[in-house]
Amino acid sequence: MLRLASGRDLERLQQLWLFTVVHAHPSLPVEYWQQRLPEFRRCCLGAEACVVYQSALDSVADGFFTLCAGNALPWLCVNPGAVRRGAGSALITEAKRRRRKLHTWVLQDNLGARYFLQEQGFVERERQPAPAGDQHWISMVYQR
């Protein structure tokens, strides 16, 4: 089930975000992401839309995405336990329904996200050096 996030979801979304990014980026220390929690909070609170995926069997969020100005899709996170069960596909389908064009940045070592986005029609546009981890941020764009 998809629904708009509410204020009561913020703590769960923070936990889910931190767990997801730490597991998706093993080359970066946990502290790198913990330092970015305030930035993540601001992003969620200032997003034009924050949509949550919740399985029919559970009352907590198993995934979410945020949409911001400029067709930005800063975060699309899915609980690793819900991967390959339709959560990510449901979320990205909803994001694409809301925007004709989407833009996101993915770290080079996040192969799962890169592959998933390519399957969903995103294409790589550019690479920029990341400040940590000796890798690049990859700009990926979707347009229907």
TrEMBL record:
Gene3D superfamilies: 3.40.630.30
Location of the N-acetyltransferase domain: 1-144
Top-rank taxon: Bacteria
InterPro entries registered for this protein in UniProt: Acyl_CoA_acyltransferase, GNAT_dom
UniProt-recorded name of the protein: Peptidyl-lysine N-acetyltransferase YiaC
Source organism of the structure: Microbulbifer aestuariivivens
Lineage: Bacteria, Pseudomonadati, Pseudomonadota, Gammaproteobacteria, Cellvibrionales
